[in-house]
Design brief:
heterodimer, A: about 350 residues, alpha/beta, Rossmann fold, 2 domains, five-stranded parallel β-sheet, two-stranded antiparallel ribbon, 17 helices, globular, B: about 325 residues, five-stranded mixed β-sheet, four-stranded mixed β-sheet, 12 helices, about 35% helix, about 20% strand
Chain lengths: ~350, ~325
């Protein structure tokens, strides 16, 4: 047993920041080193990504998008996690992380071409250190761990954030990746956005145990925190990232939140969940909570809040007009261009035949 | 150079790739200290160190999953799947990500996945399969299967140097066949070779069935039947010009693989010949392969797998036309 105990990382700079209930302690909150402008920026980002989320849903309802998957209610995780990382720390998302992508600077109108059926990957992941969306659940977690292993081999001090939902923790790829992360001491933060629902299956039917408490079984620490507190998420990810940067390996953060919207615009949550649950979580809304805290601290007056709302409206207008103006690539390019770097002869012939068949149509 | 086994040729190829490009990484189950269950990676960890040649936990899906992450980080991963029958655990990562990552990101995946495949080794279940058609059916991958030590060396160099993902099938029953190899000889992906010239019918094979086809050709010669044997080497892309050039002479084709005939890669070859070479044919394209039943217990594998007699029977039927 001795060797098993040894591999479990005891160094845990995250846990002392939080109460046993996963709330950021008051002294940790005041000791984050964020000035008023930085604190307001977190608020602005949450407002912007929520407005983008609403706009995307509107666009879907108007027939401009084939599908939309809302992240309503999860903004504190999206904003807090990205703010806690360096710009060159790669993020490996699942498919609900458009808020995170926006925080990395990806143009929301460009991103939405994914949901408009124009592209499988509208942004250059290298430009934003933001990997493509991964739709098969949990499959991105091994990529995050592999990338982090590569960072370690390079002797680089960048770290990686792999994020996923509670449903992903049921899958083999998640367990395998957790295990690899521990064995190779990969500099990776594994961030579970536990939003309580995997389409229609509630957390209690997804897993019988605690997600966070699994981490020691893989040889590194984990913690469950309040995922609707942007500063709590920021503090946890930053401390876990610093730990990984020092070479102390992976960390699992289970951020508790709630999927306030449907799974996607094709889903009908009234078939499986109660309004009372929504009301409970509405009271914990990450933006309302943070606004009230900022106001209490004197960091956000009405004028500043109104200016942020106006900025969100402007962004939404641009998003609409730019999305509608998105020009589809020629079909040959969209279908064939990025399949191979060195396309084989028969593949080129098929493309040529296809493109010739389009001429004059 | 002394004749070397195919196992040694692949080892040398990996060694030269590791020496020639420091981005090349070799990893998988038991490939480090042990040198692989077939000793293909023997001595590589000793030469190149534990950072570049390493053992992984026993989890095929994430062996391939980390290859994707490492490729994004700029490495050229060469993961090993220990046996054909274990690649299914990694199927999602290969089909959903390795094959399609470039299409959604513009970032190439220079990953070579080595898989020993095929039967004839008297193994227990899951150790004798021929899963190539699952991968030839997947756009974004290239799929190759050498039949000789020289081709194994050269094709693996081409695969690792290729910017796109390659599934590299090694005919494990031929690991110990020996020949002299010339490391300076290049074999590009997508080029078949005529393994034996002939005029009566063309036997098309790859991987483990090439030497079987050659045996069939030697046997046929005694009956004054001249068989041409094509070693495809590359399944995807497929070298149709070499096949059609052969049919210009022989007008008859027999495809041989160990995988079950139904839904097997031979069906694609037959269909392509029918598309592009219908006028050349004097007989339907015949397919010889495994049966549409799971790979049998090893005592029965000789009856299940194609053999010289089954190839010659198919040739006889083809020759009886016209």
């Amino acid at each position: 047993m001795a060797d098993v105990v040894q591999v479990v990382g005891t160094d845990d700079p995250v846990r002392p920041l939080f109460t046993a209930a996963g709330e950021l302690k008051a002294d940790a909150r005041s000791g984050l080193g964020l000035d008023a402008a930085a604190l307001r920026d977190l608020y602005q980002k949450m407002i912007l990504i929520r407005r983008a989320d609403q706009e995307a849903l509107n666009l879907q309802r108007q027939g401009e998008l084939g599908l939309w998957g809302q992240y309503l209610g999860q903004e504190a995780i999206h904003v807090g996690a990205v703010a806690a990382l360096e710009a060159n720390d790669w993020i490996f998302p699942s498919y609900r992380e458009f808020g995170m992508a926006m925080c990395r600077g990806v143009d929301p109108a460009e991103m939405l071409t994914w949901f408009r059926g124009l592209s499988h990957g509208p942004w250059d992941p290298r430009k934003y250190a933001f990997a493509p969306l991964a739709v098969p659940v949990a499959t991105q977690v091994p990529h995050a761990v592999g990338f982090a292993m590569g960072s370690r081999l390079r002797g680089s001090d960048d770290v990686v954030l792999g994020t996923f939902g509670d449903g992903a923790t049921s899958k083999g790829d998640w367990h395998e990746a957790m295990n690899f992360a521990g064995v190779f001491k990969a500099p990776v933060i594994l961030l579970c956005q536990n939003n309580h629902w995997a389409i229609s299956v509630p957390l209690a039917k997804q897993t019988a145990g605690s997600i966070a408490e699994r981490a020691p079984g893989y040889g590194f620490p984990g913690i469950r925190i309040d995922g609707n507190d942007v500063l709590g998420v920021f503090a946890a990810v930053r401390a876990a990232a610093e730990r990984a940067r020092r070479g102390d390996g992976p960390y699992l953060i289970e951020a508790m939140t709630y999927r306030m919207g449907a799974h996607t615009s094709s889903d009908d949550p009234t078939r499986y969940r109660l309004d009372s649950e929504l009301q409970t979580w509405s009271a914990k809304d990450p933006i309302a909570r943070y606004r009230s805290w900022l106001q209490g601290q004197g960091h956000l007056d009405d004028a500043a809040a109104a200016a942020i709302d106006r900025a969100a409206e402007t962004m939404a207008e641009q998003m609409r007009s730019r999305l509608r103006a998105a020009v589809p690539a020629p079909a040959g390019e969209a279908i064939f261009d990025r399949v191979y770097e060195r396309p084989p002869g028969p593949f080129i012939e098929e493309r040529e035949e296809f493109e010739a068949s389009l001429e004059g149509t | 150079m002394e004749p070397v086994t195919m196992a040694k040729a692949i080892n040398l190829s990996l060694r030269d790739a590791l020496a020639g490009d420091e981005q090349v990484l070799v990893f998988g189950e038991d490939v480090g200290t042990l040198g692989g269950v077939f000793r293909i990676t023997d001595g590589l960890q000793k030469t190149f160190g534990v950072d570049r040649v390493f053992d992984t936990p026993l989890a095929e899906s994430t062996i391939i999953g980390i290859a994707v992450g490492l490729a994004l980080r700029g490495f050229r991963p060469v993961p090993e799947i220990q046996f054909d029958g274990f690649v299914y655990s990694a199927f999602d990562q290969i089909v959903s990500h390795v094959a399609k990552y470039r299409n959604r990101s513009g970032i190439s995946m220079p990953i070579t996945i080595r898989i020993p495949f095929g039967g004839h080794i008297g193994a227990v279940e899951h150790h004798s399969e021929s899963p190539e058609a699952y991968f030839t059916h997947t756009a974004g991958l290239k799929v190759v299967a050498p039949a000789t030590p020289g081709d194994a060396y050269a094709l693996l160099r081409s695969a690792i140097a290729d910017p796109d993902p390659v599934i590299f099938f090694e005919p494990k029953a031929r690991y110990y066949m020996k020949e002299e190899i010339n490391p300076s000889l290049e074999v590009p992906i997508g080029s078949a070779r005529v393994a034996r010239e002939g005029s009566g019918a063309t036997v098309i094979a790859y991987g483990p069935t090439v030497s079987l086809a050659l045996d069939a050709a030697s046997a046929a010669e005694k009956e004054n039947i001249s068989l041409e044997v094509i070693d495809l080497r590359s399944l995807s892309p497929l070298d149709m010009p070499t096949i059609l050039a052969s049919l210009q002479k022989t007008h008859r084709a027999v495809v041989v693989h160990e995988a079950p005939v139904f839904g097997g890669f031979g069906g694609e070859i037959a269909a392509r010949i029918s598309d592009d070479g219908f006028d050349l044919l004097e007989a339907p394209v015949a397919r010889v392969g495994g049966m549409d039943a799971p790979y049998p217990p090893s005592r029965y594998e000789k009856l299940y797998l194609p053999d010289v007699d089954r190839i010659l029977e198919a040739v006889d039927v083809a020759l009886a036309y016209g």
